[in-house]
Design brief:
The structure is a homodimer of 306-residue chains. In chain A, 28% of the residues lie in helices and 17% in strands. With 306 residues, chain A is α/β, with parallel strands linked by helices. Chain A has a 7-stranded parallel beta sheet. A 5-stranded parallel beta sheet of chain A has the order 2-1-3-4-5, covered by helices on one side.
Chain lengths: 306, 306
Amino acid sequence: MAVLAYKLPQPWLDAIMAAGSHLDIRTEVDGKAARDIKSIVFAWTPPTEFEAYPNLRLLQAVGAGVDRVVMKGSIPPHLLIARVVDDSQAECMSEYVLLHVLRHHHRLDHLQREFAHRRWEFGVRTPARECTVGILGLGRLGTDVARKLAIMGFRVRGWSRTPKVIAGVECFAGRAMLDAFLSACRHLVCLLPLTPQTTGILDKRLFAALPKGSYLINVGRGEHLIEADLIPALEAGILSGVTLDVMREEPVPASHPFWNDPRILITPHTASVMYPRDAAPQIIDNLDRVEKGLVPENLIDLTIGY
Amino acid sequence: MAVLAYKLPQPWLDAIMAAGSHLDIRTEVDGKAARDIKSIVFAWTPPTEFEAYPNLRLLQAVGAGVDRVVMKGSIPPHLLIARVVDDSQAECMSEYVLLHVLRHHHRLDHLQREFAHRRWEFGVRTPARECTVGILGLGRLGTDVARKLAIMGFRVRGWSRTPKVIAGVECFAGRAMLDAFLSACRHLVCLLPLTPQTTGILDKRLFAALPKGSYLINVGRGEHLIEADLIPALEAGILSGVTLDVMREEPVPASHPFWNDPRILITPHTASVMYPRDAAPQIIDNLDRVEKGLVPENLIDLTIGY
């Protein structure tokens, strides 16, 4: 049987070809050859016509987030969907979140403005151990971020759909505990998967449950944020500063009002970098499993969407 | 016997009075009363006339760096000098160093300039595990910084006067190994004590031993840096960016050329914050020890200067 590498960016195709040289990997198939395909490896969006692949068993993403597939809801139920779970991606994400939590905590934007005016101002900084950071989403990435923030001395709490236990992290679960979770979060980091339940969760109702003057970092998906609620929360002093690595429309159009606001920093979806050479062995292992009739790893549960 | 709280800033005086209510703490003495003084607690600079205090035994600093005392070289040899060794200060320092190493590593200044132009540019980031951070100075602060950088995934190496062993940190010692240490440092952090041997260590000769395009963070003392060598190293591309929390003259005069350079960020000596309420018990414990004829802790060795 064969593998279809579907519209992969070249670095991914190169890495997968190199790691899977024992496999019959094709970059296109037509007509009867589609019957040979047992697995499809895709980057952002898989093919939408599955009738052509009667023997297809696995849709293997090369990334960690599969919402663009799952949210469409048109996946035939006999197909398995797998993603990559990659420690180096968690390392990258933790770097990004630590950088921006510390940037907010040290009021670096303020210091840099003072610097531009050649002013020398001693500020008072709250010790990290008196400052609470809340993580929305305690998957692989959220757990790594929480653990590292705790090592840096911050008080760390996390919120997830189902109850979790993580050493050194105060864990909350379910909608009923969301407001209790939010009530102490000086910094809030969104690392949720995008599902119908989490779409638009970062809205004015949620902001109002935070301590006044909190900081927000969104590294989940652009669709988690109700964009129209953000500037009013900054204007009202409910939020002090915001860092967004994800937006509903990327690249962000030049006319977007967020560009104008000095309290908002947008980064171009670079928080988490996955290196093809790191992820390829895991992808090839899943392709091998399907060939051997074994169950692939890191499968998506379509009933919960991640 | 009595304690002289010598020109302490009010928050320090308040904390020491509160923690040492069982002691005879005075804020000034004159004439014969100076004979009662067995310990002097000072902030930046102790008194220079010691003849007035015939029973003086301990000079207790309220900070971690005592170079302003030791470098003067006029301390009578029978006096003990003690500093504060404070875990919360190490936490603060590590926060600062992690923030600025990550800021340099993510080329955040570049991203922010792109942001100001509303440009959306995907950058390539080296994984932390392929990036070496070197720490000059492996005392309490340097060791905490090194350990936390290693947890974040960076390759970490350290250099110190005498050999050290720290798990997860490649340790170098002595002048003979300095160039070997520097040769891989993408980021260099100066956390050395200021002594005659380390004054001016950050000079063009040292910069030339770094990989081209490295980043420098000075959180030691302003006197570690030969200021005239810095802009030429940036111009030559030997350094890519510099963060300075300490300067020879503080506050930095408005006419200083570093203010003009977008590759240099100056922060107002705020990397390490010591909170009086955290340090006061340790200071009082030393004052009690002197009263009881015991040896105080965290003494300075005048022969090495820290």
